[in-house]
């Protein structure tokens, strides 16, 4: 063990009465580090969890990538494209693609005896990935949807059911306007709740055959294809790969395919989520600043209190760099203890919130009813390393105060 670290460790562990560092200064410095790191861990886990939760819900309603008619624009009154088995097979061969499924949509209206509501009827086939809706199913069941027969069954949201005073087992009248008004009576077999109000108030899920009949399309015509990826970070690259092979290529009826990913389809939502990254950086900078300045003030108090010791070490031949390292090592010990408590507080919040959901949110505003949290070991390690490095770097300047202490003057205070 080098001399500087040995002396720092002796001061930290075995200070004699009358030679102890100022306890309030040490305590305040450690509290500053602990609070700063705890707030950073909590803020990062909440913001990352929030972004992940919102993103997963948007993806759950429409997958990562959609391939539709180029003339569709951004309307739920879609124009068809031909999607056969050969196209589905070709899409599944992309390395990053996990699942492929067809869908068709038809805007319409629900009407009861005392209320009405605009909706979008979304038809899906037997290959549809049901996991997202099964996770959010609160009543009833998820039916087996078909692309060859109409079940006249529907899945709708709890928000819509509450608004229209509907329940599982009820039959609802739906109306669709084309050349004439077409009506369908559908049976509610399940109710889901995602708290994502923009979609909960809009989508009803039914079988693909029913929607295609309402649209008067051929059996192999659909509104589009939804492509689910294995990793979200492959979104841009995979979108461009599929687009290069598919975009603006006509089907047998002359309709051109258009490939768009979830971020292109929902720019407002993802722009809003991107702003949260700025919030993370603001919080990190402020908390590191608070933690660093408390350590600076603590170090200055410690140096002043240990003026006589500095004079003795200099008189014994220790140079300024050696003595500076003593106090920097001492600061590292204090920072480490503060970081230990900061990790304990931050991770305790994560596990408690993850298990019990103590902190609640208004789902109408935040799209979820509890504060979401997400833990990433690499982000946690990065925060710890960044806090340690930033705090030590901020101490380098104040540590030069030692060079201005004269041995002849300081020993007189002993």
Quickly describe the structure.
With 414 residues, the chain is of the alpha+beta class. The protein folds into two domains: 3-57 and 269-411, no CATH class; 80-254, no CATH class. It has helices at 3-14, 23-62, 85-92, 131-135, 158-164, 197-200, 208-215, 235-246, 262-265, 267-305, 307-315, 320-356, 363-366, 377-399, 407-411, and strands spanning 65-69, 81-82, 97-111, 116-124, 137-140, 153-157, 171-177, 181-192, 203-207, 221-222, 224-229, 257-261.
Key terms:
single chain, elongated, alpha+beta, ten-stranded mixed beta sheet, 414 residues
Outline the structure in words.
There is one protein chain. This protein is α+β, with helices and mostly antiparallel strands. It folds into 2 domains: 3-57 and 269-411, no CATH class; 80-254, no CATH class. The chain has helices at residues 3-14, 23-62, 85-92, 131-135, 158-164, 197-200, 208-215, 235-246, 262-265, 267-305, 307-315, 320-356, 363-366, 377-399, 407-411; strands spanning 65-69, 81-82, 97-111, 116-124, 137-140, 153-157, 171-177, 181-192, 203-207, 221-222, 224-229, 257-261. Strands 1, 3, 4, 5, 6, 7, 8, 9, 11 and 12 form a 10-stranded mixed β-sheet that branches. The chain is elongated, with a radius of gyration of 32 Å. 34% of the residues are buried.
Elements, N to C (H/E): HHEEHEEHEEHEEHEHEEHEHHHHHHH
If you compute it from the alpha carbons, what radius of gyration comes out, rounded to the nearest whole angstrom?
32 Å
Approximately how much helix is present in the residues? Answer: 40-55%
Count of DSSP H/I helices: 15
What is the number of domains? 2
* Mean pLDDT metric: 85
Beta-strand proportion? 15-25%
Can you tell me the residue ranges where pLDDT is under 50 for at least 5 consecutive residues? Answer: none
| Sheet of most strands | 10 strands, mixed
**Separation, N- and C-terminal Cα atoms:** 28 Å
Number of strands: 12
Categorize the overall geometry.
elongated
Report the structural category: alpha+beta
């Amino acid at each position: 063990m080098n001399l500087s670290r040995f002396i720092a460790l002796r001061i930290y562990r075995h200070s004699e009465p009358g030679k102890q560092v100022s306890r309030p200064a040490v305590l305040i410095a450690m509290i500053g580090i602990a609070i700063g790191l705890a707030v950073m861990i909590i803020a990062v886990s909440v913001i990352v969890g929030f972004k992940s939760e919102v993103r997963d819900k948007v993806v759950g309603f429409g997958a990562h990538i959609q391939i539709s008619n180029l003339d569709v624009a951004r309307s739920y009154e879609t124009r068809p494209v031909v999607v056969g088995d050969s196209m589905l097979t070709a899409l599944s061969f992309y390395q990053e693609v996990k699942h492929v499924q067809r869908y068709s949509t038809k805007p319409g209206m629900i009407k009861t005896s005392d209320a009405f509501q605009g909706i979008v009827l979304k038809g899906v086939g037997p290959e549809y990935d049901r996991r997202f809706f099964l996770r959010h199913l609160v009543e009833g069941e998820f039916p087996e949807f078909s692309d060859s027969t109409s079940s006249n069954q529907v899945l709708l949201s709890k928000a819509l059911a509450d608004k229209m005073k509907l329940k599982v087992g009820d039959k609802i009248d739906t109306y669709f306007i084309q050349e004439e008004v077409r009506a369908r009576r559908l049976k509610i077999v399940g109710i889901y709740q995602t708290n994502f109000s923009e979609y909960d108030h809009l989508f009803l899920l039914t079988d693909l055959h029913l929607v295609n009949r309402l649209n008067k399309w051929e059996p192999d015509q659909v509104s589009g294809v939804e492509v689910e990826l294995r990793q979200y970070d492959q979104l841009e690259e995979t979108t461009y790969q599929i687009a290069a092979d598919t975009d603006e290529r006509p089907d047998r009826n002359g309709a051109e395919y258009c490939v768009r990913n979830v971020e292109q389809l929902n720019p407002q939502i993802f722009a809003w989520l991107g702003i949260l990254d700025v919030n993370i950086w603001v919080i990190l900078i402020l908390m590191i600043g608070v933690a660093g300045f408390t350590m600076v003030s603590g170090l200055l108090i410690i140096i002043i209190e240990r003026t006589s010791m500095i004079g003795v070490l200099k008189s014994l031949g220790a140079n300024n760099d050696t003595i500076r390292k003593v106090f920097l090592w001492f600061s590292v010990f204090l920072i480490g203890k503060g970081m230990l408590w900061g990790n304990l507080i931050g991770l305790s919040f994560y596990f408690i919130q993850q298990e019990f959901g103590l902190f609640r949110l208004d789902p109408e505003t935040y799209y979820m009813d509890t504060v979401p949290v997400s833990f990433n070991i690499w982000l946690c390690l990065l925060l710890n390393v960044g806090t340690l490095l930033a705090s030590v770097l901020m101490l380098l300047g104040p540590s030069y105060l030692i060079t201005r202490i004269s041995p002849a003057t300081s020993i007189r205070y002993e």
